[in-house]
Design a protein that fits this description.
The chain contains 13 helices and 17 strands. The chain is of the alpha/beta class. It folds into three domains: 117 residues, no CATH class; 152 residues, 3-Layer(bba) Sandwich (FAD/NAD(P)-binding domain), CATH 3.50.50; 111 residues, 3-Layer(bba) Sandwich (FAD/NAD(P)-binding domain), CATH 3.50.50. It has a five-stranded mixed barrel. Strands 12-11-10-16 form a four-stranded parallel sheet, with helices on one face. The chain is extended. The N terminus is likely disordered. Bound molecules: flavin-adenine dinucleotide. The site of flavin-adenine dinucleotide (FAD) has 27 residues, from helix 7, strand 5, helix 8, helix 9 and strand 6. InterPro entries: FAD/NAD-bd_sf, FAD/NAD-binding_dom, GSHR/TRXR-like, Pyr_OxRdtase_I_AS.
Length: 405
């Protein structure tokens, strides 16, 4: 008998048979017990047996559910119980739950009956972008029944661009995680200073090694990048390294590192490509950096100007100040962290000033000029300031969807 092998139902990615079957796109008709590598050319129809058993089981369960629902809806014979409102509420809740279960089973049953056309897609789901969203969607789809799930991601690099990224995405590689490592690193400075007031005698000179901290941060994100890759492969998701594009209603193209292009059909395509830091359109804007570069600076800056009042601006201002830099924070509103609770915003503003960060509310930058001594930042209040680093933390913008077509 001839069968189509739903690869991931039976095999793990490590199974040598997986590769052999996968090289046929997982759709090649096989004979024999496909779980046995020796029997690949000579086997039974696993899919057909499984389908028949499932259908029989489903209709049995549905009949049972129908019977239970009818029984529950029937008024009780006992008259006292019948007039008890508690009893009717319980009865209503039970009936409702059973109806929902029955409906779900029916829907699952429908989904289970893939049409010929559906069965011939290379992937049930193909995800473009392996950040927090993409990885989660791919893993969970694979774990909850999608048989063939693919995902593509740009090659790893801590500073993102059109051509580099990395599995784990912004949060893991150039967002939450590396930022927190720097926040923790920076928090020791004021603590050590404070410790002197509590009897600690820190007599020897205490040095801070920026390069070492960055190296530790890079090691950690490489470790997490590996974990994310393993999470995907353990869930049975096939990872492609390269740039993804949608090239047809159900077709994706992945341009690999060496320029070769792979094309796959997919029943569903998910674009999960996140967003990129944006730069305000002012003269000299190319002299500033964004959070991507801020997490990988070669040298620790001594003078910093930060533009933006959101959490990324506030966090980087605190990181650099904690490491001893002078920091000027410019933002448009009266207080930083627009959208957060007002009392909390006021408390944060006081704390930032308490740490020695100069706040410039209702002020923005109008121009940046390269000087011998650094970058000159001009403000709309006519002030000028020289800094080693100017950080734009003015929000992110989504890439246009048309970039993916
Ligand atoms: C500095 C910073 C600090 C942050 N701190 C926090 C925090 O503390 N807590 C928090 O909850 N959030 C934080 N965030 C936000 C968090 O990182 C994002 O909300 C989250 O990463 C969004 O996930 P995503 O999957 O939508 O996109 P992303 O994580 O950006 O993933 C999208 C992926 O798609 C890839 N990609 C793009 N185009 C293509 C293509 N054509 N082909 C293949 N792959 C492509 C990219 O390389 C990227 O890896 C922070 C962000 C930043 C920048």
């Amino acid at each position: 008998m001839i069968c189509e092998v739903p690869l991931q139902s039976y095999l793990s990615f490590n199974d040598p048979l997986f590769e052999r079957l996968n090289s046929h796109g997982g759709k090649q008709p096989f004979k024999g017990d496909c779980r046995n590598i020796e029997d690949v050319d000579n086997c039974l129809c696993l899919v057909e047996i499984e389908d028949k058993q499932l259908k029989a089981l489903r209709s049995l369960l549905l009949s049972l559910l129908r019977m239970i629902t009818i029984l529950l809806m029937r008024p009780p014979l006992n008259k006292e119980m019948n007039s008890d409102p508690k009893y009717s509420t319980i009865r209503f809740k039970l009936t409702y739950s059973f109806l929902i279960m029955a409906r779900k089973m029916l829907i699952d049953g429908e989904l289970g009956n893939a049409t010929e056309e559906e069965a011939h897609y290379d992937f049930d789901l193909f995800v473009i972008g392996a950040g927090s969203g993409g990885v989660r969607a791919a893993r969970f789809s694979a774990q909850y029944g999608a048989k063939k799930v693919g995902i593509c991601e740009l090659p790893f690099h801590p500073i993102s661009s059109e051509v580099v990224g990395g599995v784990g995405g912004t949060c893991v590689i150039r967002g939450c995680v590396p930022k927190k490592i720097l926040v923790y690193g920076a928090s020791f400075g004021p603590e050590l200073e404070d410790a002197r007031n509590y009897g600690w005698e820190l007599n020897e000179k205490i040095d801070f090694n920026w390069k070492k901290l960055l190296q530790k941060k890079t090691e950690e994100i490489i470790r997490l990048n590996g974990i994310y890759k393993r999470l995907l492969s353990n869930a049975g998701v096939k990872l492609f390294e390269g740039e993804g594009k949608v090239v047809g209603p159900n077709e994706v193209e992945v341009t690999q590192l060496d320029g070769t292009k792979l094309r796959y059909s997919a029943k569903y395509i998910l674009i999960a490509t996140g967003s990129r830091a944006q730069r305000p359109d002012i003269p000299g804007q190319e002299l500033a950096i964004t959070s991507d570069e801020a997490l990988s600076l070669d040298e620790l800056p001594k003078r910093v100007v930060v533009l933006g009042g959101g959490y990324i601006a506030v966090e980087f201002a605190s990181i650099w100040r904690g490491m001893g830099a002078t920091v000027d924070l410019y933002f448009r509103k009266e207080l930083p962290l627009r959208g957060f609770d007002d009392e909390m915003r006021a408390a944060v503003a006081r704390n930032l000033e308490g740490r020695g960060i100069s706040l410039h509310p209702r002020t923005t930058l109008t121009e940046l000029v390269k000087t011998e001594d650094g970058v000159k930042a001009l403000t709309d209040h006519g002030e000028e300031l020289i800094a080693d680093v100017v950080l734009f933390a003015t929000g992110n913008s989504m890439p246009s969807l048309f970039d993916f077509f």
